[in-house]
From TrEMBL, chain A:
The encoding gene: ftsE
Keywords: ATP-binding, Cell cycle, Cell division, Cell membrane, Membrane, Nucleotide-binding
GO BP terms, alphabetized: cell division
Species classification: Bacteria, Bacteria division TA06
Protein name per UniProt: Cell division ATP-binding protein FtsE
Annotated membrane topology: Peripheral membrane protein
Record note on quaternary structure: Homodimer. Forms a membrane-associated complex with FtsX.
Automatic annotation (TrEMBL), chain B:
Pfam families: FtsX, FtsX_ECD
One of the GO biological process terms: cell division
Transmembrane segments: 20-44, 163-186, 218-244, 256-278
Family from the record: Belongs to the ABC-4 integral membrane protein family. FtsX subfamily.
FtsX extracellular domain mapped to chain residues: 55-150
Originating organism: candidate division TA06 bacterium DG_26
InterPro entries: ABC3_permease_C, FtsX, FtsX_ECD
Domain ABC3 transporter permease C-terminal, residue spans: 173-283
Entry keywords, A to Z: Cell cycle, Cell division, Cell membrane, Membrane, Transmembrane, Transmembrane helix
PANTHER family for the chain: CELL DIVISION PROTEIN FTSX (PTHR47755)
Location of the protein in the cell: Cell membrane
Designated name of the protein: Cell division protein FtsX
Amino acid sequence: MIEFRRVHKIYEKNWAALKNINLKINKGEFAFLVGPTGAGKTTLLKLIFMDESPTSGEVIVLGHSSADIKSKEIPYLRRKIGVVFQDFKLLSDRNCFDNVAFSLEVTGTPGRIIKKRVLQALTQTRLSHKRNCYPFQLSGGEHQRVAIARAIVREPSILLADEPTGNIDPEGTEEVLELLRNINASGTAVVMATHSLATVEKYHYRVIRLDQGEIKHNGLLTEGNL
Amino acid sequence: MVYSLRETYKNFVMRKSTNVAAVSTITASLFVLSLFLLGTINLLKIIRDFHPKMDMTVFLKDNMNLKERREIEELIESRAAVKHYEYISKEQALDEFKSELADTPELFEALDVNPLPSSFRIELNQPHSNPDELIALASALERMDGVEEVKYSERLVTQLQRLFSGAILIDIILGISLCLATFYVVGNTIKLLVYARRDAIEIMKLVGATDAFIRRPFLIVGLIQGALGGGFAATLLYVFYLAVKMKISGIVFPGMEMVAGLIGFGSILGLLGSLISVRKFLKV
């Protein structure tokens, strides 16, 4: 489903964000991406939804290779990938319903389908009662749940979460994690970047630890390997 | 399309002052340009209405033979600048001269030979239609055997040519300058709109909106700005025309063609301006 083959990503001034990354993430898998700030977690996620392209090597996502994908094909690939961020990226002038619907509107989904699917996504994220609320009326956890609803409303095959619990309280963190686990249980592969060791230790999922752009650990967590 | 129109509406409402500034600048640019075009059109009309009858006379040598005369005739017939021509023999020329000076017949009593040359009298098409050809015809005739001299209103033709060429040149230079100014203003408006909508654009890219979809509302904004600017410029021009008409009778207004042209040209300018800036600032 996701494969990195000898991927290097070098930014300006010869700064290597990722070095020789070889990685496979399978269908329906849940993987944590951990590492200190600047380790390359966000770059790795960006390579998956092709917001960046590798300096060398190849990233293959849902059958599309970074080596030969055309720029006009990227939007269609992104429709199969949901992305959530630490800073939520909600539109402040739209309520919850419209924020989630936005994701379908801009991909040309007919209005009657939009309504049905948005309400389903809001129900799944337990926000249907707040569908008319604006972002400023929501808590941090609720913000992130709206962002997740927006990411899953297109029923993606992959969900990427970049520090989704970084800006929310412990209670909200629990809710978001439960939600991501439920989404994963329905067959969506989830890759979640996090700083939180407590979160990683609590769930027995695969852990990919990055440090200075290199994979230092790739597998289930055992004592002493973090 | 519903989404694009809604976004276009938002872009207009969100940045009212910017949009008003852009439409005003396009209006001013197109109004100035259309004023010069109106001037050129009326200059053309003046030239057409008031130009003197353009004649060319080709005086022939007395010793010209028939073959030379035939060749001269062939050359005259082949030129587009020639509307009509006739051969005036030495005798006809003398008769005309005598009839013009009928009050003083004693002038001719002393003449024992006819001093007037034979000639071709050529009536020309309007000089502004092709002054270059007119000058070229005169030069060609002067080089031919059997031709003594070619007379025509050379100075007037070249003056009209210069005036007309000058007006067209000003129109072109002004047109290009004002197009660039319009591109700049529309471009800046789009830049501000892109900046104001950057969050929405980022999310659109994230969720898989195509580049064309993201660009479309901005292109529509540019198109509408241009069309409005063109429409306002046409209105101002018509008001100007009505005001001038009261003082200068005979001034012409090209009518709906000018209005449609200004709106169309404004729309194209607005669309191109926004297309350039959307490519530059949107980075999609």
